[in-house]
Amino acid sequence: MIRPMLATDVPDVLALLNWMDDAPEREVFSPEARSEGELKVECEDCTCLVDAGEEGVLAYCALSPFRDGLVMEGPISDGAQLGPLLRHALERADGLPVYAFAARDNLPVREALEAAGFAPMHTTDFYSAPLSRLTPHACAPAGHRIVHHLPLATYRELFRASEDTWAERLNWTPEQVDEHFARPDVRLVALLRGEQAVGFAELEFNAEDARADVTYVAVHPAERGQGYGLTLLALAAAEADTRPELRTLRVRAHDHMKPARALYARAGLTHCRSVVTYMKEGDEDV
């Protein structure tokens, strides 16, 4: 029986999440919470559905606001039929686009998503390396200096010139930008030649996984081909290395970003996972 999730379902949903975590190939976008109290709070703002039988919850998914539509958590299932659960979820999407994310090797979920009308948009590959592999190269070139803050106009100009997929960042208010970089787990490392910003790297620290994620590396198009990308990766690793709980640097690239992939290979990062982004188009008549 497919129905909205109840508070009494939380232990079973946690069991499904832990089952998913046991193998990387089962990965889908899912709640961050891995405790009963946190999961209850996290699910308050979601439309959560479960496929429940006599033995408890067999499958789970949820819908939350995302970009111009909704994002799906899951579907997560240890053997249940995913088709009916996806159909029930899409009936609650109110005609909005729905995004979903699944590991490239999660074939059962990918097949269920495609059967439900989701289309793959792109694959995001992740690469990682120990900080110790990158930090020996962390120094500013002659005539350059390292800063950890950029004026908003400079940041936006460099971001606009360098980025083609994160355009929503340009719509942030000054207050949103300040709030983002004031977070203790976020850090900016920028490289200036004189007063000219040639590039920056943004980091988010994940102490639980002993990892620093480079969420973006930006090098101004006019400055490319001079090794700034390698320098910024090394500087990002050095910044992460100031946190004793961190051991690894991770980066990502969509499948069309060939220069980024080549940069990560030159820097000595190795491929560690791939995630496919799916979207179900909205219903314009709704």
Give a structural overview.
The protein has helices at residues 10-21, 36-42, 82-91, 107-115, 131-134, 152-162, 174-181, 228-240, 258-267, and strands at 2-4, 47-53, 56-66, 69-77, 98-103, 119-130, 144-147, 186-193, 196-206, 211-219, 248-254, 270-280. A twelve-stranded mixed beta sheet has the order 1-2-3-4-5-12-6-11-10-9-8-7, sandwiched between helices. By secondary structure, the chain is an alpha+beta fold.
Key words describing this protein structure:
alpha+beta; 12 strands; 286 residues; twelve-stranded mixed sheet
Helical run tally: 9
In percent, how helical is the residue content?
Answer: 25-40%
> Biggest β-sheet, characterized?
12 strands, mixed
Q: List the strand order in the largest sheet.
A: 1-2-3-4-5-12-6-11-10-9-8-7
Rg calc: 21 Å
Low-confidence stretches: none
The SS-based structural class is alpha+beta
Mean pLDDT: 92
Beta-strand content bin: 25-35%
Give the N-terminus to C-terminus distance in angstroms: 27 Å
The gross shape turns out to be elongated
What are the SSEs and their pairings?
Layout lengths: L1 E3 L5 H12 L14 H7 L4 E7 L2 E11 L2 E9 L4 H10 L6 E6 L3 H9 L3 E12 H4 L9 E4 L4 H11 L11 H8 L4 E8 L2 E11 L4 E9 L8 H13 L7 E7 L3 H10 L2 E11 L6
Parallel strand pairs: 4-5, 10-11
Antiparallel strand pairs: 1-2, 2-3, 3-4, 5-12, 6-11, 6-12, 7-8, 8-9, 9-10
Helix pairs in contact: 8-9
Structure in a nutshell:
The chain is of the alpha+beta class and 286 residues long. The chain is built from nine helices and twelve strands.
